[in-house]
């Protein structure tokens, strides 16, 4: 029985309607070799190869439902909806944008991923063991070898040196170890603030006569949604600023045969402290876990002591049936929630014995002694429509 039939869930559409399929279409426009994932059906009939400059702007956290509930420039030009990947979170999605692969292939399964190679649960974007402030490279791990992902930028036009690529990213992450593993031959372009991001994008458009692919990433919408809630006034004000800056940018590059595609990595759902299950408050549950939770507060992977499986399932189902679904992780894998085709050799090791998929607005957290406690009012990673669906905004210039 498919997981879809057991859960009130939105699942990734890897057969033509996900962000991975968008990357297939972009790659095809630049001569990337055929992949296991078909092109994006929402772009059928649109020749991306006719543009001299193709820009993909990823606004972290800007869900399709948010755009549709708004008014203005983005809604007016929203071409379609896409799905994120599973889990619907930055670590899995951004890795998909930078590699052109689904989590099934790239193997990063959440902000916190258990990497057997490092000996623990690892925050895969900052490249740190959970509860540590030290990079795993400082502990002797070769991050490039550990992730071992192809760079999407290196796969563009392999037989044509008249194609270039650039990555426009905040200065504070531009030279991060994670980015260094994934940017390949793309030209890195850092920025501070919204106006400078669009200025860097304009500079890239004007800098060369080669055909080029430009990937740009904007994180502030996500940050504000976490801190204030996705439906808050600060997020709404910022959303208006992004749209205004976009219109100004399009006017500046008008006539350059540029296509700007705008999308996201995931959407958001808002929660409250009373909707958080704290594992530390449940000694029976905590005693069943052989390591800290990994994944996301909305989709948590549980690794169990072998003799505690029955206790775990009984406790979770009896205590939290109205708040979560407890699903064997192997079922998610077999039902293609992580992607299609041949799986990453470590994927099974990275999704635990069971996955807790949170219902409604609930989240689950555990805390290590070395971790400073915090609360996010906006959350993602789950299987709700709000989290899973992202916009595809289409803007020729």
Could you explain how this protein is built, in words?
This protein is an alpha/beta fold. It has 2 domains: 281 residues, 3-Layer(aba) Sandwich (Alkaline Phosphatase, subunit A); 107 residues, Gyrase A, domain 2 (2-Layer Sandwich), CATH 3.30.1360. Helix content is 31%, strand content 21%. The chain has 16 helices and 18 strands. It has a 7-stranded mixed beta sheet with strand order 2-18-9-1-8-6-7.
Summarize the structure.
This protein has 397 residues and is an alpha/beta fold. The protein is built from 16 helices and 18 strands.
List keywords for this structure.
alpha/beta; Gyrase A, domain 2; 7-stranded mixed sheet; 2 domains; globular; 21% strand; 397 residues; Alkaline Phosphatase, subunit A; 4-stranded antiparallel sheet
What is the CATH topology classification name of the largest domain? Answer: Alkaline Phosphatase, subunit A
Mind summarizing the main beta sheet?
A: 7 strands, mixed
CATH architecture call of the largest domain: 3-Layer(aba) Sandwich
Shape: globular
The level-1 CATH class of the largest domain = Alpha Beta
- Rounded to an integer in angstroms, the radius of gyration calculated over CA atoms is 21 Å
Strand order of the largest sheet: 2-18-9-1-8-6-7
Poorly predicted tracts of residues: none
Mean pLDDT: 95
Number of strands: 18
Beta-strand share of residues: 15-25%
CATH superfamily of the largest domain: Alkaline Phosphatase, subunit A
Kindly, what is the distance between the CA atoms of the first and last residues, rounded to a whole number of angstroms? 47 Å
Helicity, in percent?
25-40%
């Amino acid at each position: 029985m498919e997981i879809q039939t057991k859960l009130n869930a939105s699942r990734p559409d890897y057969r033509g309607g996900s962000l991975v399929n968008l990357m297939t279409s972009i790659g095809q426009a630049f001569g990337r070799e055929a992949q296991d994932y078909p092109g994006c059906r929402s772009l059928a009939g649109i020749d991306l190869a006719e543009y001299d400059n193709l820009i993909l702007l990823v606004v972290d956290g800007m869900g399709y439902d948010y755009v549709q509930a708004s008014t203005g420039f983005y809604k007016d030009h929203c071409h379609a909806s896409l799905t994120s990947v599973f889990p619907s979170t930055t670590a899995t999605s951004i890795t998909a944008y930078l590699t052109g692969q689904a989590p099934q292939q790239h193997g990063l399964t959440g902000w916190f991923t258990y990497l057997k190679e490092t000996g623990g649960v690892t925050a895969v974007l900052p490249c740190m063991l959970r509860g540590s402030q030290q990079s795993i490279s400082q502990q002797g791990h070769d991050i490039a070898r550990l992730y071992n992902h192809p760079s999407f930028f290196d796969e563009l036009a392999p037989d044509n040196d008249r194609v270039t690529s650039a990555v426009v990213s905040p200065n504070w992450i531009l030279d991060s170890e994670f980015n260094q593993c994934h940017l390949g031959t793309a030209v890195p372009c850092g920025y501070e603030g919204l106006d400078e991001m669009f200025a860097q994008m304009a500079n890239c458009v004007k800098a060369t006569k080669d055909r080029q692919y430009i990937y740009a990433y904007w994180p502030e919408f996500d940050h504000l949604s976490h801190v204030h809630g996705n439906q808050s006034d600060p997020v709404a004000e910022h959303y208006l600023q992004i749209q205004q800056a976009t219109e100004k940018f399009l006017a500046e590059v008008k006539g350059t045969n540029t296509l700007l595609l705008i999308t996201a990595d995931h959407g958001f759902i808002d929660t409250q402290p009373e909707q958080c299950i704290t594992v530390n408050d449940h000694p029976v549950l905590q005693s069943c876990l052989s390591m800290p939770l990994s994944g996301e507060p909305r989709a948590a992977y549980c690794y169990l002591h072998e003799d505690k499986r029955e206790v775990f399932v009984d406790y979770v189902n009896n205590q939290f049936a109205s708040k979560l679904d407890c699903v064997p992780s192997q079922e998610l894998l077999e039902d293609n929630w992580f992607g299609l085709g041949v799986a990453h050799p470590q994927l099974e090791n990275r999704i635990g014995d069971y996955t807790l998929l949170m219902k409604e607005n609930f989240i689950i957290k555990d805390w290590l002694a070395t971790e400073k406690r915090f609360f996010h009012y906006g959350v993602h990673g789950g299987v709700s429509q709000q989290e899973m669906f992202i916009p595809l905004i289409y803007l020729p210039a």
